[in-house]
Specification:
Largest sheet of chain A: 5 strands, parallel
Strand content of chain A: 5-15%
Number of helices of chain B: 12
CATH architecture of the largest domain in chain B: 3-Layer(aba) Sandwich
CATH superfamily of chain A: Thiamin diphosphate (ThDP)-binding fold, Pyr/PP domains
Order of helices and strands of chain A: HHHEHHHEHEEEHHEHEHHH
CATH topology of the largest domain in chain B: Rossmann fold
Distance between the termini of chain A: 67 Å
Structural class of chain B: alpha/beta
CATH class of chain A: Alpha Beta
Radius of gyration of chain A: 20 Å
Distance between the termini of chain B: 44 Å
CATH topology of chain A: Rossmann fold
Largest interface: A-B, 47 and 46 residues
Oligomer: heterodimer
Number of domains of chain B: 2
Strand order of the largest sheet of chain A: 1-2-3-7-6
Largest sheet of chain B: 7 strands, mixed
Strand order of the largest sheet of chain B: 3-2-4-5-7-6-12
CATH superfamily of the largest domain in chain B: Thiamin diphosphate (ThDP)-binding fold, Pyr/PP domains
Order of helices and strands of chain B: EHEHEHEHHEHEHEEEEHEEHEHEHH
Radius of gyration of chain B: 20 Å
Shape of chain B: globular
Helix content of chain A: 40-55%
Strand content of chain B: 15-25%
Number of strands of chain A: 7
Helix content of chain B: 25-40%
CATH class of the largest domain in chain B: Alpha Beta
Number of strands of chain B: 14
Number of helices of chain A: 13
């Protein structure tokens, strides 16, 4: 009873809320695959905080927990040759694009076998082999370079597509507006995905933004723009499909505002002291993984047994990644200190 | 050998590289239809098409970022910033992304971008179109900074910069654009990070770069009349910087003056003197001298502008100090 009441309250205040349905063209197999990817992201992210507390991982770490439907919903339309640009909250994007959890975990441990050879860590995680152009520690800064990746496709007249993620905080960085303008002017094959979790660390979007529906910014640049329910993977998948097809056909960019709400702290140890968390609590019942699982059970798309198996497999993969990073990887050699500052082995001290 | 202007040497380098490598492209404000304010890219859009020579909106921050991203996925962008003063707008993409990506990604990606930026004082274009901000970029690990001052150097070094896999900023002094010099027909490149000895001498070494090389030559000619023999080193590249050539010269002259057009406070002249003292204190017979602009924005008024930047008299006075 309480649950229903809460859901009614969510529907009233969370205007992007949309009921779930299976969109045309989405197979059961694809749904299971997306669900498995979301669960793997969740299990990976849940494992990092204890590692941080145990001093195995250090620095800043921003979990993708409860945003899984956004990254997975759009990236599932991409090919290996397509690119994504990421945010400081990039682990989920790496996994969704087909990255390797072992190498990502090794990077968080600062190991030489990590994606970035221990030079980058969580905030700069990148996997060029799957077209993941890198997380960034400068909010909003990945957008212009990602549009540059789309510029390459335009110059070369290839049909690959770039998807770039940023948040409501990043949306207020000027170079994003400049990039949207150029993407629109030249019809670049890029999809802008604004993960609007309504909080820029401790600053509520309502305190710093005049128009809270951020998709309207896209319209101002002449870009087809949509707002989707960021907790609803079916909604994200369906809108993304149109956007990716449009980009691939050379018809230009799309702006998707994936509206959500940050249910956790900004980073691993942020306790949200500056927010009224009683308002937030009820949203856990529409968090994307549980919501998709419930929907699939109700519609006989999946069984309890399958759900259990997917979860067990994800846990196993993450445990193996931790084992790999902790026991099978090595520290970067101190002799390699100057490596990668310049290219082709050139050292300038 | 043909005699051409430095401006033409840039055009030649870019045209040859556009033709040689389909990954090379140019972007910037007014680089296409107008052919840039100095005519440097004139005709290239017609020759290579609107997707290889791209007119951008006035969005330095983002179009530099687009260039950086295109470079990460394998292109070789030539991004033009109308005046080096406007580099401030693109700073984040240059410093935080272009310079750091190869390192942060553990070598997974390179950023083979070249950013061309006309800089320097002259012509009464005042505080926001005259700046010498090359110093700032020398402080950023991961970048290369070049300042070729002759048509021959410019062509050969710009071609090397385009082929280099690290990000390079090419500072072009506006007063050098009309300077003429011999440029060989056909293909040649000049490695980045090698200084050139412009004038051989035995009494005092002048270490300088870009337009100040020419002002230093005027000073050297004056001093020669008095029998003072000056050796002039044109650094050509500030990062990497060729200290081997600098120190070899000082080993011979035991006296050094470092000349920059940048405001002296916090400039590379201090850094160079510091390095010289560390490497070869015992070689020096006199305290090293620095010459630079006064620490003000660049004035509009002609007399004030002249007062601001180093003239041959300032260089001569500094040389004399080393001989006291």
């Amino acid at each position: 009873m309480k649950k229903n009441k809460e859901l009614e309250a969510i529907k009233k205040e969370f205007t992007a809320y949309k009921e779930m349905y299976v969109p045309d063209g989405l197979t059961t197999e694809e749904q299971l695959k997306m669900y498995s990817t979301m669960v793997l992201i969740r299990k990976f992210e849940e494992s990092v905080k204890p590692l941080w507390m145990a001093n195995k991982v250090h620095g800043y770490y921003h979990p993708y927990i409860t945003l899984e439907a956004i990254g997975v919903g759009i990236i599932s339309h991409l090919r290996l040759a397509d690119y994504i640009g990421s945010t400081h909250r990039g682990h989920g994007h790496v996994i969704a694009k087909g990255g390797d959890v072992n190498r990502m975990m090794a990077e968080l441990f600062g190991k030489d076998e990590g994606y970035n050879r221990g030079r980058g860590g969580s905030m700069h995680i990148a996997d060029m082999s799957v077209g993941m152009l890198g997380a960034t520690g400068i909010v909003g800064a990945a957008v212009a370079p990602a549009v540059g990746s789309a510029l390459r496709s335009w110059i070369k007249r290839t049909d690959d597509v770039t998807v770039v993620f940023f948040g409501d905080g990043g949306a207020n960085a000027g170079s994003i507006s400049e990039s949207m303008n150029m993407a629109a002017a030249w019809k670049l094959p890029v999809v802008f995905v604004c993960e609007n979790n309504q909080w820029a660390i401790a600053t509520d979007i309502a305190r710093v933004t005049g128009e809270h529906d951020l998709y309207k910014r896209g319209i101002g640049f002449g870009i087809p723009s949509y707002q989707v329910d960021g907790f609803n993977i079916y909604d994200m998948w369906e809108t993304s499909k149109k956007a990716i097809e449009r980009a691939r056909a050379g018809e230009g960019p799309t702006f998707i505002e994936a509206k959500t709400l940050r249910l956790l702290g900004h980073h691993a140890t942020d306790d949200n002291w500056y927010r009224d968390m009683t308002v937030v609590e009820k949203y856990w019942q529409i968090e994307p993984i549980k919501r998709m699982a419930d929907f699939m059970l109700e519609n006989d798309i999946i069984t309890e047994e399958q759900l259990r198996k997917i979860e067990e497999e994800a846990i196993k993969k993450v445990e193996a990644a931790i084992e790999y990073a902790d026991t099978q990887c090595s520290e970067p050699s101190l002799d390699s200190f100057y490596d990668f500052v310049y290219t082709d082995g050139e050292i300038i001290e | 050998m043909a005699i051409i202007t430095l401006r033409e040497s840039i055009t030649q380098a870019m045209r040859e590289e556009l033709a040689r490598d389909e990954n090379v492209f140019i972007m910037g404000c007014d680089v296409g239809l107008r052919g840039n304010p100095f005519g440097i890219t004139k005709g290239l859009m017609k020759e290579f098409g609107e997707r290889r020579v791209i007119d951008t909106p006035i969005s330095e921050a983002a179009f530099t970022g687009l260039g950086v991203g295109a470079a990460i996925v394998g292109m070789r962008p030539l991004v033009e910033i109308l005046y080096a003063d406007f580099l401030t707008l693109a700073m984040d993409n240059i410093v935080n992304t272009a310079a750091k990506t190869s390192y942060m990604f553990g070598g997974q990606a390179n950023v083979p971008i070249v950013i061309r930026a006309p800089f320097g004082v002259g012509g009464g274009v005042a505080a926001q179109h005259s700046q010498n901000n090359e110093n700032w970029f020398v402080h950023v690990p991961g970048l290369k900074v070049i300042t070729p001052s002759t048509p021959y150097d410019m062509k050969g070094m710009l071609k090397s910069a385009i082929r280099d896999n690290s990000p390079v900023i090419c500072f072009e002094h506006k007063r050098n654009y009309s300077i003429k010099g011999e440029v060989p027909e056909g293909e040649y490149t000049i490695p980045l990070g090698k200084a050139a000895i412009r004038r051989e001498g035995k009494d005092v070494t002048i270490v300088t770069y870009s337009y100040m090389t020419y002002v230093s030559e005027e000073a050297a000619k004056e001093l020669e009349k008095e029998g003072i023999s000056i050796e002039i080193i044109d650094l050509r590249s500030l990062l990497p910087l060729d200290y081997d050539t600098v120190m070899a010269s000082i080993a011979k002259t035991n006296r050094v003056v470092v000349v920059t057009e940048a405001p002296l406070r916090g400039s590379i002249a201090g850094e160079i003197v510091g390095e010289i003292v560390t490497r070869g204190f015992d070689l020096l017979d006199a305290p090293p001298q620095r010459v630079g602009s006064k620490n003000t924005p660049i004035p509009y008024n002609e007399n004030l502008e002249r007062l601001c930047t180093p003239k041959k008299e300032d260089i001569i006075a500094a040389v004399r100090k080393t001989l006291e």
